[in-house]
Write a structure and sequence with these properties.
- The protein is 70% helix and 0% strand.
- It has one domain.
- It is built from nine helices and no strands.
- The protein is mostly helical.
- It starts with a helix and ends in a 6-residue tail after the last helix.
- The longest helix is centred in the first third of the chain and has 25 residues.
Length: 184
């Protein structure tokens, strides 16, 4: 399931849509081959479709692994990590992928639906607040995963979810550094 999760995570709707529209996402907008850049450069309908696909890339492997195969915590954590890393470093696209936030959120919906919903509401408020400050939007993902870890601790008191959140936050930060979303 870990390998399957990575291969599913490596699929990129953003790259497929951009290729159909003759747009190189690595040269326009945020230069990130992700849903936000598709939204801004190709259009809202395509950006939302890309984001939904990215969420499903994390959700589908996790729902099968948790509900059908009933894997243990360690296996689920590795499957989550594989899907997110597949999105960030896709084998099909020379290891050039997106930041992985939507794929992470898809997996976290399976981990804890209400906690993921809470984070989506907070993310929506942040996006709404920063809608006029476009330079902040790529950095929103850098806030959400640590927020997930804090809410997992304070709302659910689940140390395992905190560990997953911290680990995923680290790889999202590493990806952000790669795209220079963190300037210092």
């Amino acid at each position: 399931m870990v390998v399957i999760s990575y291969l599913i995570g490596s699929l990129s709707m953003a790259k497929i849509l951009a290729k159909k529209k003759d747009i190189n996402l690595s040269e326009v907008g945020t230069k990130n081959p992700g849903a936000y850049n598709v939204y801004k450069e190709i259009g809202p309908k395509w950006g939302i479709s890309s984001a939904a696909f990215d969420i499903l890339k994390g959700f589908i492997p996790m729902i099968f692994s948790k509900l059908i195969f009933n894997f243990d915590f360690t296996s689920l954590a590795l499957i989550t990590l594989a899907a997110v890393m597949g999105h960030m470093w896709p084998i099909y696209y020379k290891l050039r992928g997106g930041r992985g936030l939507a794929t992470t959120m898809g997996a976290l919906i399976v981990w804890d639906f209400y906690l993921a919903l809470f984070i989506l509401i907070i993310a929506g408020l942040i996006v709404y607040w920063s809608r006029y400050y476009s330079e902040l939007k790529p950095r929103i993902s850098l806030v959400l995963l640590p927020l997930f870890s804090l809410t997992a601790y304070y709302i659910r008191y689940d140390k395992n979810l905190v560990l997953i959140g911290i680990f995923l936050a680290i790889i999202v930060y590493l990806k952000a550094i790669q795209y220079r979303y963190i300037s210092d």
